[in-house]
Amino acid sequence: MPLRVAIIGGGIGGLVLAQLLRIRNNPDVLVQVFERDATAEARDQGYYLGLTGETVALLQPTFENLPKLAELLKDSRSTYTAARMVDANHNILVNFPVPAGGCFINRVDLRQALLQGLDVQWNKQFVSYSESLEDGAVHIQFRDGSTATADILVGADGANSPVREQRAPAVRYNDLGVTTIAGVSPLESASPAIRTLVNDGLVRWLGPDGHTVMMFPVFAVKEGQQSQLMWVLSYPGQRADWEGKFSGSGEDVTDEYSESSHARQALMEDCVARTQARFAPDLADIIRATPTEVNLFGPRQIYSTEVAQVRTLLSPPCGRVILLGDAAHATTTHRGLGANTAVADAADLAQSIAGAAGDSLALIQALQQYEKVMVARGIKVIKESVQVTGSIHSSGWSATWIRPAFLRVINVLIRLFV
Ligand SMILES: Cc1cc2nc3c(=O)[nH]c(=O)nc-3n(C[C@H](O)[C@H](O)[C@H](O)COP(=O)(O)OP(=O)(O)OC[C@H]3O[C@@H](n4cnc5c(N)ncnc54)[C@H](O)[C@@H]3O)c2cc1C
């Protein structure tokens, strides 16, 4: 009988794992993906993601099966070559070196491309699992009352993972006290100064009072598409500051794509006022140009799992239930590494499963080895991301004087040595 692998979650990590297992065309492995969304288009995933050159290389083996994905990731209009930090008046503080091959991609397009050739079971919301000593299998329960049986259960179900809740209840996803709102505006709303800054990549403006704005361009790649500018404003804040004011009560505000349908205009005015008071005026012009009904996302809080809690995943080591991506180590978005890390996890896990599929003992050892690598990678990413989140939202004299001086020194060192 083939090894039955049940993947909970048809997000980037789950789909990449399924595709990487599929290309091996291994009759010993049977993959099933269960996703809570009703259809591929059920949820607005209107965000853009930055994928690094390393991630694109990890996806390369799928390109033969997924020509659409290859087309999207290789399109030169989507690739980026720069990442920089500037002050509130567009003065460059640091230009970071960017490895070649990275690109910006729309999440909807990415998901559609990754779905090619997969038979995902939609409308299957995972509720719980039980591990049977009798048959060594994992039995899975879904909200609609149906069940499934697998030899390995992969929790690829994102930051609020119910699989993790059961597998490792100590791992929590904590509010870091930073509020974020994002939007997508027409690129033509950018002034010549901003246009020059964002033309080749991602720019982060560091402003006073812990306010920061990040932007990157999304150039039209399809017929009839308009070139756009993705912006993300974030600042120190609590959910209580905006709940009820900009968001309807009862919405799942911890969900990545929860989108306030209430008081959008007030939210927009608040974003414009905050930006206008702290940054060069042309930044607020871009935010003001956002089509509020379709392209304004948030507000939401920034969360992270804690390093010490992620370590608990290793004791006891995994059996037949294993996590990947945000389910294991969700963190802040400010290093832009979450999706990239989920792909790296998926690539390692695919190799572990495919390499040991026929041998039960070797398989458990391979999964435990994967888990060690995944936890170490997740911890590194959490540390880096939380450190960046703290630094870009800091305020006071150190943010006004020490931070820019420090970044300028880094810039010089990069120019000299990299
Ligand atoms: C605003 C923003 C910008 C970001 N930008 C970047 C970036 O530029 N670069 C980057 O690398 N990362 C970025 N990230 C992070 C990135 O989106 C996540 O790290 C990444 O999506 C994690 O992938 P995943 O597969 O682990 O989880 P997800 O992509 O969250 O997928 C989880 C899937 O599981 C499904 N699911 C959840 N619960 C259940 C259930 N009970 N039953 C069945 N299915 C379930 C969900 O519907 C979803 O489809 C960003 C995140 C945000 C919020």
From TrEMBL:
Keyword flag Oxidoreductase: yes
Alphabetized UniProt keyword annotations: FAD, Flavoprotein, Monooxygenase, Oxidoreductase
Sequence ranges assigned to domain FAD-binding in this UniProt record: 113-247, 310-358
Keyword flag Flavoprotein: yes
GO molecular function: FAD binding; monooxygenase activity
PANTHER family according to UniProt: FAD-BINDING DOMAIN-CONTAINING PROTEIN, MONOOXYGENASE, FAD-BINDING
Name under which the protein is recorded: FAD-binding domain-containing protein
Species in which this protein is naturally found: Capsaspora owczarzaki (strain ATCC 30864)
